[in-house]
Amino acid sequence: MHHLSVARRTPSRRGSMHDVPKELMDTIHELEKLFSVDINKMHVIVNRFVSELEKGLSKEGGSIPMNPTWVIGYPTGDECGTYLALDMGGTNLRVCEVELPEEKGQFEIYQSKYRLPDEIKVGDSDQLWDYMAECVKQFLIANHEGQDLSELPEMPLGFTFSYPCTQNAIDHGILQRWTKGFDIDNVEGRDVVPLFEDALQRKGVPVKIVALINDTTGTLIASAYTDDTTRVGCIFGTGCNAAYMEEAGCIPKLEHMKLDPKLPIAINCEWGAFDNEKLVLPRTTYDAHIDKTSPRPGQQLFEKMVAGLYLGEIFRLVLVDLHNNADVHLFQGQDIFGLKLEFSLDASFLSDIENDPWENLMEVQSIFENKLKISTTEPERKLIRRLAELIGTRAARLSACGVAAICKKKGYTSCHVGADGSVFNKYPHFQERQAQALREIFNWGPEIKNDPIQVVPAEDGSGVGAALIAALTLNRIKQGIHAGVNVKRKNSLIPPTHPCW
User: DSSP characters for 64-120?
Assistant: First the structure.
């Protein structure tokens, strides 16, 4: 990895930076140049993003998969009943029981979280599915005290599986590739629904998977359920992604199915794969290192610059590089063993740094001493704080490019974008920085008091959204819209014009 060059120029002595030595100040300026994304660069990225979204819908396809989900249309608000939802995220497993009453836009949710052990993420297939089935079983036992599981009626479940899948039906999904640090053999290229259902059957759990969804699609549907101005759903958390509703007539790769051109189909973009060709994103040597050493080099390059899984690692790599650069004099004479452990810092570490309210950054000092056993000077802490700001701001501005691209492609000039995920909800100033980037991209001046396109906190997509999609799916079955029998899965919700119908 290349060292940062140290610029030899007079630093601008501004505000709280007045006591920062010249070497560190020069380094801060170099970092600012390296991680800043200006308005011209954002325009280039957005334009490329739009073309890549369109390419993903074409027959030829592109880096961004643009997967049709077979979630047809928005909820009406009339959905009701009790549904299970299972959310398999990058860090946790969440089981929910969701009650949709007759009142429009209302819901009640009961839920439990289970940690996904690291060894399961790289274990074997049966180990993964059996663990998940056991979690569902324990949830039902706890939530239905005094009842024997064998006496419970079969419950419909919406399965939030937030990994790129090819779906020919709503209850079917072939895993394209693992993301978020998962690397389990013998799952890629297979339908994950029967794999999980077999485990549920082995455990004696009375559950039927009626819908396989992505958390981003769930976010779109759940947000639209309570806010009818929602047009896009996004996740900015461990990973990043977006979903929106596309008309079948604008999806060339579905032309052979002869669908109604006006039929609205939710598209799971899987936009973490944007710019895998390395044409427009402002990648640094640190981004290149993360990609090269990842389980899937050359894939998910956009995600590796904006998702929570990688922000702490980018930060760590920069600090190690600066410490090794004799011109910078960072953490001089100290053993930085703790800082050398790969992925030892997560996005919450950066959040804590940015949340330090003190001028002399005493909380940053405590964080470094307690977690890394590194003593810091006040000037060093100011560099640390600025670096965290730069990495967090870059993530927010790049994510805004994706939001802007979908809105430009669809011609949305005013709408809400429902967003969820730990980075969006918890990372300091992420929402404000993202909103500022959208103002710059769309050139909204100060005379516009309310931004026409706003990214707002979403409803619970992986829980409520999954339950709603299960309800929408069962309603379609009742209406006879599903039709047909798939040779692999009975009662699959294959569109009536599908060749298997």
Answer: S--EEEEEES---S---EEEEEEEE-SSEEEEEEEEE-SSTT--EEEEEEEE--HHH
CATH code at position 156 = 3.30.420.40
Determine the pLDDT at residue 480. 66
Does residue 221 share a domain with residue 77? Answer: yes
Query: Among all chains, which residue has been given the structure tokens 């259902």?
Result: 197
Residues 171 and 287 in one domain: no
- Look up the domain containing 329 and give its range: 15-45+278-395
Note the pLDDT tens digit of each residue in 109-151.
Answer: 999 999 999 999 998 999 999 999 999 999 999 988 878 888 8
- Active-site choice (48, 94, 177, 316): 177
Better pLDDT: 289 or 90: 289
Catalytic residue chosen out of the listed positions 63, 162, 399, 492? 162
Residues 468/210, Cβ–Cβ less than 8 Å: no
Neighbours of 186 (CB within 10 A): 10
The one catalytic residue among 26, 130, 215, 346 = 215
Q: Is 177 a catalytic residue?
A: yes
Q: What pTM was estimated for this model as a whole?
A: 0.85
Query: Would you say residue 15 has pLDDT above 50?
Result: no
Structure tokens at 300: 């998910």
Q: Domain ends where: 372, 395, 418?
A: 395
Is 162 tagged catalytic? Answer: yes
Nearest Cα to Cα of residue 65 among 158, 170, 179, 160 = 179
Query: For this structure, is 171 an active site residue?
Result: no
